[in-house]
Amino acid sequence: MDYPRTLRELRAARYQTRSVKDELRLNLIRKLRAGEKLFPGIVGYDDTVIPQLVNAILSRHNIILLGLRGQAKSRIIRQLTELLDPAIPIIAGSECNDDPFRPISAFGRHLLMQQGDASPVAWIDRDARFVEKLATPDVTVADIIGDVDPIKAAKGGHLLSDELTIHYGLLPRANRGIFAINELPDLAGKIQVALFNIMQEGDVQIKGYPIRLPLDVMLVFSANPEDYTARGKIITPLKDRIGSEIMTHYPKELQTAIEITKQEAWTDRFGDRGLVVIADFIRELIEQIAFEARDDNHVDKHSGVSQRLPITVMESAVSNAERRSLLTGDETIVPRVADIYASIPSMTGKMELEYEGEQLGANKIARELIKRAAGEVFEGYFVGIDFSRAVQWFDEGNKLLLADTASAEECRMLIEAVPDLLETALIPFEYHQSDTPRIVAACEFVLEGLYAQNKISRNEEGGYAGVTKAKKDRRGMIYDDLTETGKFS
To answer: I want to staple 448 with a disulfide (CB 3.0 to 4.6 A). Which of 17, 338, 374, 436 is the partner?
Structure first.
């Protein structure tokens, strides 16, 4: 597109400047009327967060997103740029995106005085109008607002009190755009004071010199509610000037969580060849781990359990299955329960533990979460189905080792020795008898479900065996199984 390149051409084109909040509002209205999807890729917020965001933008509010880690706050903030115009005009060379009709900087005003309608105009796209800053305790007023630049003063022959000597910070450079600060409570109190002063009154002091900067900017913040007490707080005058406070949340339904992980996890590694086959019960089990962790008393609920946990566990489980296929020559990569246990390193770093949890150890808690998750999902598939013959076989002293490196054919041969296991495990599924990898995955899922019900035991190497009567009587007790020693009863 051939954009006007001077102020005269811009006037001739009858260009009209809108404030950034009006711009966001009008583009949002257009999208709503056209039935376009807002915030693509954001799953699970259609009835909660997104309507509140729409209301805030329609109200021309500054916004703060409050939520625990891994709740898509940063992604939502970055997608706000899609509501900006494709490009807007600025005075060429301006550091703070001066409006050619109403410049706010000394540079812009002087240029218009000197060149008038011949003043050059540049165009910036929507991505250049988004400025993001992660708040840390070492952020200064100079970083956010600006500072006096002695080099500018020396080169231009200006006094230090001259506005032309200012090097503008991030906020003025976000003029006519969106300025986002992540983890707002980490920002020092005096920086927050500078923010609300320029938000409300449009003025600021730089090195003791008062300067008017009537910025046109949409301010968006994010914060973890726990940070209000753990690392800092949001000062009351700033909080009062934020128009809308929107709470984010973790997925409320298992299917929503599965959809998020499908979207985010890197599992389609071989294009359209379909070499990776992930059973529904494996997807459900991995998501249920996160749900169990968020309810576990040994996991710090204030820190939360990010949705990144099931995403990374899924990727690691597929990678372990891929490693097995490389070792055994299996053509199809089918993750099994053993692959989820092999993914524990992807879990432990994503859980903040309470004191008792620290004493038990992250590895043991991760194993218990897998066990409980398997029990929940197992009951959904096999409620009312009898596995008594298989359990009896284990009670008679027989053992079954399904190592995560064993091929599907090898595992199937071992599984066929367990009475009724293979036939009963396939009741909820429509697997062809030749589909050995998925049959093995289903049978191992059944074994894990029986282990979750304390009908059989499991060691760290993936071996299943019978349990003593005392163990069965303690059904429902957690952290009291054989995963700690890796030995059978």
So the answer is: 374
Residue 119 has pLDDT above 70, yes or no: yes
Kindly tell me the sign of the dihedral angle through the C-alpha atoms of 189, 190, 191, 193.
positive
328 in the same domain as 179: no
180 & 307 share domain: no
Domain holding 217, by residue range, is: 7-247
Do 128 and 42 share a structural domain? yes
List for the chain the helix, strand, coil content (%; round to 5). 45, 15, 40
Dist. CA 58–CA 341, nearest whole Å: 48
Adjacent-strand bridge partners of 87: 125
Mean predicted lDDT score pLDDT of the chain: 88
Nearest to 341 by CA among 390, 404, 389: 404
Is 480 contained in some domain?
A: no
Please tell me the distance from the alpha carbon of residue 220 to that of residue 24, in angstroms, as a whole number: 13
Q: Which of 231, 247, 263 is the last residue of a domain?
A: 247
Same domain, yes or no: 140 and 259: no
Structure tokens at 463: 């071996």
Q: What percent of the chain is predicted at pLDDT more than 90?
A: 67
Query: What is the CB-side half-sphere exposure of residue 106 using CA atoms within 13 A?
Result: 11
**Separation CA 455–CA 438 (nearest Å):** 23
Decide which of 228 and 133 is more confident: 133
Q: For position 105, what pLDDT does the model report?
A: 86
Report if pTM > 0.90: no
pLDDT for the residue numbered 478 = 43
Q: In angstroms, rounded to a whole number, what is the distance separating the alpha carbons of residues 341 and 486? A: 13
Per-residue model confidence (pLDDT) at position 424: 94
Element (DSSP H or E) covering residue 125: strand 121-125
Q: Is residue 235 part of a domain?
A: yes
What band does 167 get if pLDDT is binned at 50, 70 and 90? confident
2 in any annotated domain? no
At 435, the amino acid letter reads D
- Rounded to whole angstroms, the Cα distance separating 448 from 413 reads 18
- For the record, the structure tokens of 487 come out as 């030995």
Strands of 400-401's sheet in order across: 400-401, 463-465, 457-458
Report the CATH number that the domain containing residue 170 is assigned in CATH.
3.40.50.300
Other CB atoms within a 10 A radius of the CB of residue 73 amount to 25
Q: Which of 247, 272, 288 is the last residue of a domain?
A: 247
Domain count, the chain: 2
What's the distance, CA 146 to chain centroid? 32
HEC string of 250-295?
CCCCHHHHHHHHHHHCCCCCCCCCCCECCCHHHHHHHHHHHHHHHH
Residue 479 in domain: no
Question: Would you call 177 helix, strand, or coil by DSSP?
Answer: strand
421, 443 contact by CB (below 8 A) = yes
